[in-house]
Amino acid sequence: MSITCRPISAEQHLAFIDQRGSASFLQTPAWARVKSEWRGESVGFFDGDTLTGVGLILYRQLPKLKRFLAYLPEGPVLDWARPDITAHLAALIAHAKRNKAFAVRMGPTIVHRSWGPATIKAAIADEAVTRLSEVTPDDTSNVATRLRNQLLHEGWQTDETGHGFAAGQPMFNFQLPLRHADGTQKSEAELLKGMNQLWRRNIKKAEKEGVTVRTGNRDELADFHRIYLETAERDGFTGRSLGYFQTMWDELNAEDPDRMRLYLSEHVGDLVAATTMVRVGEHAWYSYGASTNAKREVRGSNAIQWRMIRDANDAGCAVYDLRGITEGVGADDPEIGLIQFKVGTGGEAVAYLGEWDHAINKPLHFAFNLYLSRR
Question: By its UniProt entry, which InterPro entries does this protein fall under (predicted)?
């Protein structure tokens, strides 16, 4: 039978994700309500009457034209090993075209390459290496390689430079596996042993200094936001509004009461670090983090990460995801501190296939990319 793509209800969408075990939180129906400046649509892929995949499409209209970019951040949710993947993607393009899209953009969350902590540390120490992709990965997925070749053959386009975080979702991410190869959960002792000496020392120091970590409520998002803006100023990025985090909290937790959590790390009554964690099934994400300029020596950031890792592990998650990194490993790379902090957890750097575009209207797609490059 031919594969079709058509709108489905939020309930069907969530039921498929629950059955699958996990999907990116950017592919949940709730995320459309967080990104209210886009028009959201839940779609299903059908082989006859059988639901074989789902996706959240966000539509962004071009100025003055009734033409849209159809964007599936970290989606769609498909079994990428299926032999009929190209038929699924053709159905997606046809659906987007019916909805006046000038292009489809997607980001398959399939790990293509991964580098373990020893490989990353060696790359950082090697003066001749400036980017992670210059180093042979510890693992390469044949399924992802085949998918990449299929996409290129079908006319999809991507930017594989991997520099920075660009306009979409990062290609390179950092993940801490919480299970053994046989699927059993790791113990706290095993997770702690997997960390480097500095991380273990900092966790012990935070405990000795009397740092406590607790979960917060919606009202305390304001406290998180206060030190988040302090972090933004220190690290030179533009922070999001308090309203954005309140909307995230309301919409994600309306879908699942334990989808988003707030963590607060305190020392003698002072807030020293705060983070948000999002969980969908067996995948947990460290989504936003903040720390104060004061009391950095009490290591509140290490304490808060250790608490989130343990909570994700207790919830039976397979992965604790520390989200985006850049692949630069040179001593002078502006983001080298980020990967050094994350590698201390004992996790691995992973490269997804990146984001891919399929132009339905090539002149409009070209003009859109030109506009983005000049922003």
Answer: Acyl_CoA_acyltransferase, FEMABX, PG_Glycine_Bridge_Synth
How much is the pTM?
0.94
The one-letter amino acid at 327 = E
* Contact between 244 and 192 (Cβ < 8 Å): no
Distance from the Cα of residue 56 to its chain's centroid: 15
Which pLDDT tens digit goes with each residue over 288-304? 999 999 999 999 999 99
Look-up of token digits 């969350």: 109
Q: 154 Cβ partners below 8 Å, 6+ apart?
A: 86, 89, 90, 358
Query: What does the alpha-carbon distance between residue 99 and residue 91 come to, in Å, rounded to a whole number?
Result: 13
Show the domain range for 232. Answer: 113-139+173-352
Q: What is the pLDDT of residue 1?
A: 63
Taking CA atoms, 313 is separated from 190, 199, 225, in Å, by 11, 18, 26
pLDDT of 114: 98
**Which residue do the tokens 């002149």 mark?**
363
Q: Does one domain contain both 203 and 304?
A: yes
- What angle is formed at CA 65 by the lines to CA 63 and CA 68, rounded to 5 degrees? 85
Between CA 248 and CA 253, with CA 249 as vertex, the angle to 5 degrees is 110
Q: Is residue 155 part of a domain?
A: no
d(CA 63, CA 60): 9
> Residue 133: helix, strand or coil by DSSP?
helix
Residue 367 has a pLDDT of 87
> What is residue 375's predicted lDDT score, i.e. its pLDDT?
67
Same domain, 364 and 306: no
| Positions of the chain with pLDDT lower than 70, given as ranges | 1, 160-167, 375
